[in-house]
Amino acid sequence: MRLKAYVAAVAMVAAAVAAVAAFAVPMRAGAPIYALVLLGGLIATTEAVQVRFYHRDEVDAINVMEGVLLPLLAVTRGWPLVVTAAVAVLAGDLLRRNNVLKSVFNVSQWVLAVSLGSLVFHAMRSGSLPSAAGVGALVLAVLVMSAVNIVAMAGVLTVAAGKRDANKGLALSGHVVGIAASLVIGVCLTATYRWTPWTLAIGFLLIAGMHLTGRSYAAVRADRARLEGLQRATHALAASLEPVDAIPVFLAEARIGFEVRAVQLVLFGERGTTVHTCAGPVDGEDVATYSVSVQPHALADVLADSLYEPAHLSAVGDASAAARELAAIGHQRALAAPLRSGGETIGMLLLFDHTGMEGFETGELTIAAALSRELVGFLQRVELLAAVEGERRKLTDILESTSDGILTIGADGTLTSWNAGLAASTGYTADEMVGTRHFGLLRPRDAAGRDVLIERWVEQIDSSTGMPQELQVVSSAGQTVWLSCSYSRIAGGEDTGDVLVVVARNITQARELERLKDDFVAVVSHELRTPLVPIKGWAQTLLNRGDRLSDDQRRTAVQSILAQAQKLESLVLNILEASRIEAGRADGDGIADVGAVVVRIVEDSLASRPDRVVRLRPAAVPCNVRGSAVWVERAVSNLLANAIKYSPDDEPVDVAISVDGDAVLVSVTDRGPGIAADAQERIFERFERLEETRKQTGTGLGLYITRRLARAMGGEVTVSSVPGAGSTFVLRLPVAPVGSVPTSVDATGSAMPEQRSKLRAANVVNLR
Ligand code: ADP
Asked: What's the per-residue H, E or C state across 362-420?
């Protein structure tokens, strides 16, 4: 609406000024008709072919209309001038098939321009045209016409497109160039006209030549803009390795560069076809829309099987499947470039509906081929990166999941990695250690206790001593941790120094066990030898002087031999049982009569230690438990032996059997030194012996075996103790089903329990 009003206003102003020009400037015998026709033809041609050439980066073309209007106003005047100009411009507009509004505007603005120009020209002119004043008037007339043109165009741009586009168009320098060109053409044509009007025919050649030049230049400009766009597109691929970032930019630039309505990148993948689409107006300033989806793409599928080089497609006048699919997705034309990798089509770049004016059709295919190669390269780089990333993640997972500690340390002593295994054994996390030179926090020392400066590994690794195989470090909790280390030096690149990789296995437990085993061997050999001395001594005495000994002395001798033999037997059985348990060969099936087993153990103990008092409180009911009688015997005899061993000789030991629900309890109570609360769990561990009872001989195996056997039978052994007042060990075993019969025992050479019990019936047993 505003545009129409504006055009109408321009038209009215033009009509008024034309009227003034037609009547104010008096008619004179003017140019011949054929000259007017020639001039009109020239004007119409100029309007129709739109001579266009651009100045620098300006977006608007420079027109030379003023140049061809100038001879008209120079050689004619009055209404023939106005009519010729109006008719000629209109004819040009009709040839261009401009719409009515545009035609009206063009006619009005040029009529206005030429009328004003004529008024100025004739007002200025004095003397004949070839004079200097005449040329000055021509210059002024061109300036006036250009001014009208500039003002009218600026007005139309402001009204039609709003403020933003009003900035577009020609800058001052562009206008100066345009005015100069028009002036040259106008003055030349006017001058040659004076020679003979037929020379105006040269004007046609001039306009045609300029038109062609302008077109070529426009094409070159368009190509340059396009190539720049394509360069930006390839740059997007080169600058990023993230498809999410690169592909939208690439498509947007390709769309602008190729001047197409929409661009699609179709990628065939194992998990379906991914379609990236960029569509929208071609104007560079408008934001095109980008979308990505996983969906079948019939056109790309058809093309993938048949197309190996970029090609143009058209939906019209083509019966091929591709043409049908192109029409089906609502496009007229397309440029399809297959993405080929290793003899396979991995995707398709599709450019839909060319919107650009200028040529480039043949060059497009070459550029599209180059772009598709860039895309393939990009996708391969992305894939490679993903593979490398995957490998790195795998490696990190391995590093993090391994229980071995792994660290790397740079040539300057900076820790560059610290895995979870190391964090677990030292208590220092990767966050605390990586990037620091704080390995010294762990106070590393070698096996001999000498400080080790891991940070200075570069000096040490090739020295005669090398790096220590075993390191002791102090954990964050202050505990000593032993690490068995292996070192490998990795040569660095040009700008990175060498790196030391340390694999550090936590051997604290193994070392501790080793130490305990060493102790154990020493203790066992001592324990095995100790009872042999009195056995040999008493046996010798009995042999040499047996007949001279009193009955009591002989009894003492035999009791001592028996006691020591029992100790030996117990020791050997414990060692055997321990190794059987460790090897997983222990078998605890069967039913054991706890009452009978306990009576026998108490009898045996008292036979060798008649000086001790053991008070036995049997259960009121038979107590059969599930498990091996040998195991029950081992467990109870270990508890009783400890009670006797660790309590004073004049204190009694109490053994009680009771039933508690579905469990049989055997409790052994002594009045010995007791066990400190913090040691009550520890004593059940292998080779564990308390400092305060070290004067008694022992191996640290008894309670360990007792607990393992109790648990193997589905029971447990626990201790409650008041230090200084004594301890009570309770062995809890699950009751055997009612009606089950105790199994006879033949293991480890023991006699059958029933027989042995009878054999020993006469022995003194303190029963209560
Ligand atoms: P050993 O008696 O051969 O040393 P055990 O495994 O039977 O080995 O016992 C482990 C440790 O537990 C003993 O060394 C001792 O320090 C402590 N201990 C066991 N029983 C008692 C007890 N009744 N009273 C005090 N301390 C005991």
From this structure: HHHHHHHHHHHHHHHHHHHHHHHHHHHHHHHHHHHHHHHHCCCEEEEEECCCCEEEECH
How far apart, in whole angstroms, are the C-alpha atoms of residue 242 and residue 383? Answer: 10
Residue-level pLDDT at 650? 93
d(CA 253, CA 250): 5
Is residue 265 located within the same domain as residue 375?
A: yes
Q: Could you say which of 336, 351, 386 is where a domain stops?
A: 386
Q: Is the pTM of this model over 0.70?
A: no
Distance (Å) from CA 683 to ligand 1 centroid? 7
Residue 524 is predicted with a pLDDT of 77
Model pLDDT, residue 767: 45
> The domain spanning residue 444 has which CATH number?
3.30.450.20
State how many domains the chain has.
4
- Residue ranges in the chain modelled with pLDDT below 70: 25-29, 52-61, 125-131, 161-170, 281-287, 356-362, 585-588, 744-768
Q: Say how many Å lie between the CA of residue 688 and the centre of ligand 1.
A: 8
* The pLDDT of residue 170: 62
Closest ligand 1 atom to Cα of 729: 23
CA 674–ligand 1 middle distance (angstroms)? 10
Q: Ligand 1: which residues within 6 Å by Cβ?
A: 638, 642-643, 646, 670, 672-673, 675, 683, 688-690, 693, 698-704, 727
Concatenated DSSP letters for 303-366? HHHH-SS-EEEESSS--SHHHHHHHHTT-SEEEEEEEEETTEEEEEEEEEEE--SS--HHHHHH
Boundary of a domain, candidates 330, 356, 386 = 386
In-domain check, residue 212: no
Nearest CA to ligand 1 atom 20: 642
Residue 464 maps to a domain: yes
pLDDT, position 110 = 94
DSSP 8-state secondary structure symbol assigned to residue 492: -
Does residue 414 sit in the same domain as residue 355?
A: no
Give the domain extent around 472: 402-506
Report the CATH number that the domain containing residue 583 is assigned in CATH: 3.30.565.10
> Which value, in Å, is the radius of gyration of the alpha carbons in the chain?
56
Rounded Cα–Cα distance for residues 460 and 466 (Å) = 6
Q: Are residues 288 and 157 in the same domain?
A: no
What is the pLDDT, as a whole number, of residue 315?
A: 86
Average pLDDT, rounded, for the chain = 85
Six-digit token string for 317: 């006048």
Q: Is 549 within a domain?
A: no
Which of 693, 695, 707 should be mutated for ligand 1, with most atoms under 8 A from CB?
693
